[in-house]
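Weekly modeling sync, notes
Attendees: S.R. (lead), two postdocs, one rotation student

Agenda item 3: backlog of single-chain predictions. S.R. asked that every request posted to the team notebook include the full sequence so nobody has to chase files. The rotation student volunteered to paste the first one in as an example of the format we agreed on. Action items at the bottom.

Example entry:
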Amino acid sequence: MMREAVRHSPAAKVMVWDPFVRAFHWALVVGFTVAYLFEEPHIVHVWAGYFVAGLIVARVVWGFVGSKHARFSDFIYRPSTVIGYLRDLVRMRGKRYLGHTPAGGYMVILLLVMLAATGIAGLIVYGGEEQAGPLAGMVSEATAEQFEEVHEVLANITLALVLIHIAAVLFASHVHKENLPRAMVTGKKRR
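Predicted structure, as returned to the notebook:
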């Protein structure tokens, strides 16, 4: 009886994801979704892209100065560790990590890079086709046309990574018997 009370007590949980990480995560979900779904009106797409870009810059800074589990140094592992983790996870015995898993850490970096690349391509398109934004007057219309397809391909690759991320989070939640999406809302995970 006493053991069960301890297992379900608030002390059995620990704060892992700070308010910035949680707000960043869900704001990024909204920003990317809006940018992806709303090409028209164009201004909505553009401002959603600026919003995502601002979030990325803030997250990179937070990756160096933020709380323990927000720092890149906490979740960047050797490739062999990532491969071993994935192998064990597929076998339903992956090691549980309090912060990001080795594969999760790589996904964070990959998503940040792909979102940045998508945004840069979008700025090139916007600067050349609309003669607007920070690259206005510096990009030819021909260059902008070439980058329009690059922007779309990068956005679609990013969407595919997001879907893989969601599937992996759900699978890891099952393997570790832990609701990882809830942890990204509350910030807390079991000790």
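Discussion: group reviewed the output briefly. The mean pLDDT is 94.
Action items: rotation student to repeat for the remaining queue; S.R. to check formatting next week.
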